[in-house]
Specification:
CATH superfamily of the largest domain: MM3350-like
CATH topology of the largest domain: Structural Genomics Hypothetical 15.5 Kd Protein In mrcA-pckA Intergenic Region, Chain A
Oligomer: single chain
Number of helices: 4
Number of strands: 8
Largest sheet: 8 strands, mixed
Helix content: 25-40%
Structural class: alpha+beta
Strand order of the largest sheet: 5-4-3-6-7-1-2-8
Number of domains: 2
Radius of gyration: 20 Å
CATH architecture of the largest domain: Roll
Order of helices and strands: EEHEEEEEEHHH
Amino acid sequence: MDAAAAPDAYLVYAWIRDIHPLLWRRVLVRADSTLADLHWTLQILFCWTDFHLHRFRIRKTDYAIPRHGLLEGHDARRVRLTDLAFRPNERFLYEYDFGDLWQLEVRIERRVSIAPRRTYPMCIGGRWGGPPEDCGGPEAFLEQRDAAPWRVHELLGAIADAVTANDTEALDGPLEELATWRKWLTAYRFNRRAVNRRLRQYAQGDDNWRRAEGEGKPCD
């Protein structure tokens, strides 16, 4: 194949608006992949499940994957990234779950050469775990994430007191609430190895990428 005709990749940087410190991912994606591929890549990167609607807004034009036969905007499956001729550091918006309204700034940092024997897409960096589905949006996510260590500490103290007092009835409430809060203890954790495992499965057409590994979020 002519080197000039060989496919390239884009280095893409994405972060969620209104979350501080910045919750971000950096990923390499093939330039000849589609916007639909980028949608699935972002879902995997942020540990979401595509349960809700989404859209890209690029240069005042909307793109999405049709759901239930309905489509607002252009079909993301029919648009390749390279067709959009992105400029270096050009940004656009990706929105997911119009109730919680997660808004991602996506920046196409630059175009790079495809590396032999590397599977694309590939996550090369990130910080903080992805927000759980249906947690209420950025503000609610930050409140629950930051409160979790202190609330779990309080609950463990209450459980210890109940055990010391041999009061089994007093255990029920704290134990039930502890189970709810425990998932928030991992909200700071970003498991890049698990994310890349799912990205490889997606690239290879292995539907196991859709399945959660054990309990919790898909990329725990």
